[in-house]
Amino acid sequence: xxxxxxxxxxxxxxxxxxxHAAFAAQTGQELTYEKRQAPVDGFAAAxxxxxxxxxxxxxxxxxxxxxxxxVAQALTIRARAAGAVNTLHFTxxxxxxxxxxxxxxxxxxxxxxxxxxxxxxxxLLGAGGAARGVVLPILEHRPAQLVIANRTVATAEALVExxxxxxxxxxxxxxxxxxxxxxxxxxxxxxxASLSAELPPVPASVFAPGALAYDMMYAASPTVFxxxxxxxxxxxxxxxxMLVEQAAEAFSLWRGVQPATADVLQSLRDQL
Length: 272
Description:
Rossmann fold; 6-stranded parallel beta sheet; 272 residues; alpha/beta
C-alpha cells in the first residue's frame, strides 16, 4: 500500500486525509494518507524518516512551505516561481518539489465558479507567500490586468518585477491599498486578515458590477472580507474549493489520474 501524508504544525485540523481518501476511493487507487506533525525545527528529518518508511509523497502546509523548497532536490517551474512548495514527490531520481496552490485557485475559479480570467481585470490583495503562489497560474490565463496591492508596496513591486515579462506590456502592476483606483472583475484576498477577522483596507469601489470576490480562507460563515464584498454587490466564494482543487492536482501528480472534485467539495461544504 503506497503511503502519503501531510506535514504541518499544527496539523490536527487538516482535511487533507479525508480529501485524498475520497479521491482514492473514487479512482480505485490503493493508498494510505495520514497527518504528521513535524517539529518546527525538524522538518527535513521528518521528511527523510517518512521516505525511509516507504512514503511516496507528501503535502506540506504551514509553517513548512519554505523548508520544503530546501528539502527538494528539484523544483517545478511553478514551485520556483512561487518560492514555496506544498507538494513533494519522492521519485527514483530524488525529491521533487511542486506548488499546486495556484493551479487549485484557478481551477476553482474557472471550473467550479464558472468565471473566466482571460481578458478580466484582476486585483490580488497581499504579496506574501499565498499571493506568490498564484501569480503565475493567473497570468497563464491572460488577464487584461493584474494589480497586486499590499501594505508594503515594495514587496508587491518585487513580485511585479519577477512576473512582469510573463504578463506582457503593462499588464502587471503594484500599489498600496490607499492608491487603489478603478474597478475589478475578480478580487482575490490572499492576505491573512480573515484569520483575525480583519478587513484589508480596500475601498468598496474595487468591486465592478457582478465581480467575483474570492477569499483564500474558508469558514462556516462568510469572512469579514466576503461580507464587505457582498454588501457592495459582489458574488462570493471562499477558499474551500481551492483546498480541494490543489489536493486534486497533487493526487494527479502522484498517481497519474485526475480525480473529480465536485462531490468531495460538496461533502466538505456540508460539514462546515
